[in-house]
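Q: Hi! Curious about what Ribose-5-phosphate isomerase A looks like structurally. Here's the sequence.
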Amino acid sequence: MTEAKRLAAEKAIDYVEDGMIVGVGTGSTVAYFIDALARMRDRIAGAVSSSDQSTQRLRAHGIEVMELNATGSLALYVDGADECDPHKRLIKGGGAALTREKIIAEASKRFVCIVDPAKRVDVLGKFPLPVEVIPMARSLVAREIVAMTGGQPVWRDGVVTDNGNWILDVHGLSIVDPLGLERDLSQVPGVVCVGLFARRPADVVIVGGEPPLVL
Ligand code: 5RP
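A: Let's find out. The predicted structure is below.
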């Protein structure tokens, strides 16, 4: 799948235009995108990063990292996903960067999602759904999730997000109403972000292959 990730990432370069400030996601697929972006670093104005991990890689390539508060809305956001359904709705957060990823996706006019073929599913939920929570609310939120969904939340022990929070991964879901679940779980006190991207799905999905598939 490594080669498929690289091919998807390379194809996403087609969407980068001269002078752009590019929103950049997180993960192994995005790492290939950052490496490809570095080849045209003199033609872009900079990047807005969704994680400390991506910030480090961008800076190592000499790409300026800017604050979203300073840039305003972006023309383009490129990010990976853990699952993608036929409506371009996603599960994200395998890399624990879901909150900043969702913020940048919301701020961006076009969201290009880069995935390998294994990420495509008919119904979201086989990949455990990440939920970022305020630490003191971890067990409260876990109980609410069980009551609301019947899924099994598992604390991603030892992981602290860039925002200082914790992650619950919800196993055993078959998400037939992603929009409703995203809305309902987001309202539980203590939930910072739900790794469902249904309210703001991707606009374009690139599935890595020879040639890449653009959906
Ligand atoms: C990070 C994410 C990533 O986009 C997702 O986990 C996919 O990662 P990879 O490209 O390594 O398969 O949502 O929070």
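A: A fun detail: The longest helix spans residues 138-149.
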